[in-house]
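INFO  loader      accepted 1 record
INFO  loader      residues=424
INFO  predictor   begin
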Amino acid sequence: MAPPAAPGGDFGALPGAALERVARAAGSGPAGRMLGVCRHWAREVGGAGALWEDFRAAEGWGPPPAAAGAGGGAQAGEEAGLPAFARGAGVRRRWRRGAGALGAVAAHDRWAVACAVHGDQVVTGGYDRVVKVWAKNTLRWTAVLQGHSGKVSCVAAGPAGAVVSAGRGYIAHTGVPELLLWDVPTGQARALLGVRQNSNIASAIHDVAFAGEHAVLCGHGGGDAVLWDLRTPDSCAQVYRGHGGPVFGVAVAPEGRGGAGLPGAPAVGTASSDHSAGLWDARTLRRVHSLPHDDGVLAVDLGGCGATSPPGGLVVTGGLDNAATVWSAGSGEVVGRVAHRDWVRKLKFQGEFMASCGKDGSVGVWDLTDPASPQQTLLCGLGSDARCLAADWDGLWAGCTDGQLHCVSFADAPAFPHERPWGL
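INFO  predictor   done
INFO  writer      dumping tokens
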């Protein structure tokens, strides 16, 4: 008799009613929490993937598909061997329960104020004038980039390991603020010159974000947001003008949302000290919505394109009014609000979840499945002012004024020293 076929990505390919009951039990309640504890214990003691490999062998499914290939590490093989529904549902379940493992590492001699994540690397910057690149799974630095003449104010991580950073210093004899594109393997930086002549940037750059593969968006103290094409030296692609104060935060909508003038950058968001945030159409450089606030705005992010989100998705903003406000990107109206204990420094969307960090030294996660009624799933204190935040499905990374880089990992088995998992 032939052995049963290995399961595919479809839930229906798995053994019927029994697994359906297990999946339902794991979703909530004591059974789900016990399953999480057992899985964490098995991976800690038996090694990553051991439990799943034994189960496949007992069922006669053979090795995971990636194990037969020539490339890829143990973790990549393990993920490829899991059914698609288990990968997606498992990580969302940990986000929804706040089941993250908290760890920290000393990142900078002075304040860690900039953080970004892309792929397998995390990038940080601090008041010690240094940019560091870290392995995401181990929290060990892999590169130290030195070249800023002043404090690093923001960093961005992009495709193919690209890193862009900005500092409070100016390029000698030019009066141009430092906006550097790094070649990480060699540690060499290329200054994006010509900024002053092309876009009137003569003040510090406060935030930067990748807009697609070949462009970065930066906000500066002159009140503009500038889209910079990395393929064309000394030339800026687009300028978003209209704010009456410094632009402290910028955001680019996720890929697949349609138009921003460049592929992968359909919409642009800005946050300013003029008590407003802006949502811009990058095809026309026109501000579609001006989102009013009672005080200065420090953070903005775009996302929330789930089935229950309003048409056009969501915009989330926060700042000196001690709250994160959720807006409909289509109508520009408020759909939800989350009060905080102090200033909101940074906000990040991850699927249907919103993460925040602030002056009160905490990192929080809210489920925005129903934007009108956000549900808090995680709140953990970091001990000092949290100045920056990065997020992907594997976890959250926050830098603080004590120089520490904190991680709340939602991965199956964090590879760095960590405290007892939260929410289990």
